[in-house]
Fold this protein.
Amino acid sequence: MCGIAGCTGDSAAAEHVIESLKRLEYRGYDSAGITLGGTLLRTVKVSGTVDHLKKTLFSGDHRGTRGIAHTRWATCGEPTAENAHPHLSCDGGISVVHNGIVENFSELKDELSASGHVFLSETDSEVIPHLIEHYYDGDPLRSTALALRRLTGTFAVAAVFARHPEVIVCAAGGSPVVIGLDEKRTFVASDVQALSPYTRRIIRLDDGEIALLTPGAAQVYAAADLQPRRKEIVLLPAETVSSGKGGFEHFMLKEIMEQPVCCGNALKDRLDLSRGMVVFPGLGLSVRELSRVSRIVIAGCGSSIHAGLTGAYCFEDLAGIPVSVEQASEFRYRNPVLEPETLVLALSQSGETADTIAAVREARMKGAWVIAVCNVTESTIAREADSVIPLLAGPELSVAATKSFTSQLIVLYLLALYAGRGRRLPQETVLRLLREAGDIPALVRRVLEQAPLIERLAKRYAWADDLFYIGRGNLYPVALEGALKLKEISYAHAEGYHAAELKHGPMALLDEHVPVIALVDPACEAEKICGNIRECRTRKAPVIVFAADGFPPDGPAVRDVVRVPACSRYLLPVVMAVALQLFAYYFARARGCPVDRPRNLAKSVTVE
């Protein structure tokens, strides 16, 4: 993996494909490559950035009306130019880019090597062009389909053939492929962000589909038997197009600062104050139907798990529904027990997370109703779920989740109120909570106004290589998220703990070199968390307190305190998360880290 881009039908194909790759940089990568040309294919590959690839390519011949390119995140083989995509057949006449994992590549490689094929890389992906070459009989579509049937694993593939100078063949099998249509040009990519400058008319390939692309046209077939498929052309939403950094140094800071607007979008048209109700158009489950749900299972990965853990407090407290939060990567392997009245919530920013897609399919196979909570309404998870609640956060290009996380928290809170109204909450209680929810954008603005203070604190502690985050109640998952944010972008080792767990082992690591970030809700177990802070101070650990207004004046003496506005305990995780995002951002920036593209990480993890 990580990014695929291609174009046919334009003399400026090189420029378009490179620009598309630039728009996929946010996904994370370590090498890049491109193949251009018609009957003569030219391939350039580099270890490093797309800018390096562009400079190398444009220093020589970059003519051609067709091209495919790739940004690679190393999973099989080191991040070298030799291991970068595209990979070529032995005769150099077939070039392939691939996202995914070929699980049976060792046996395929042995088989192909025995018949005379020579491999030049350490990657699993290189078996694909050799397989296509093995089956090639003059028909690029059929030879690609035959090759892909031999693969075990996941793939998104784009291939070009020297003998077919205007054709691109692409296919999907567990990893996303999007086709873009213009009057005389056709594009292919692994993400709509790559296509948005050129067209809004797209086709998404479903798993098991293969397409033949020619200038201005795309023919889609079932890969199993090459029977034609009728595909709907979807108009890409205008908001999919990113407006750049908007004057900010990094996308992450821009996206943190956008959160008052994003929180407003998550609330927009969903608060019916006249009736004291939450409204979810197109949900497919009425309040009465949701009241019959006996259990909720939340599946997600990374930040989405932390959002789910926070949401669990809301569902159990407000709606009286028991909740389990599952790592999507383990969900289908555990043979989960899903009763007929179980509701499954699949959380994902991109909607293309491979493990969460697998969880959705397993849940639906077992008869559960699945709601996707994600930011991309045309994504695989959104399309395969029974219904979808869009986050409406807009494009998020920094690898670290920020506005998508807080939008998830808001959506889960609203869904808990929606369920609670039909089970245990009187109308006046719901109305009060909805009015409080309407204050979220203003509360977040007040947190963002403290950016200078948070920046000073982050710089003060940027020397630390180990940090603890502690919290209680629904701030415990926020502590986990705060620690994840810090380790993702600053490369410091950070761990989140329930504050009560300090005595059960972690406290052995505390000393003057390990700062502790304590999250305090004055209205919830304040005495206990203050006791935990004193214990940390006794071990000489520096403590930074993030507390809602009202942090007791008689609490432990702490020099460094960030106060966030007091609000409902259900909303405090949102405003606290924003403060911790700022801390992580400024901490990483002070350490000189590449904030938007941290090493070894990808924005959308499309393989297991």
Summary: The radius of gyration is 25 Å. The CA atoms of residues 30 and 79 lie 6 Å apart. The first strand starts at residue 2 and ends at 8.
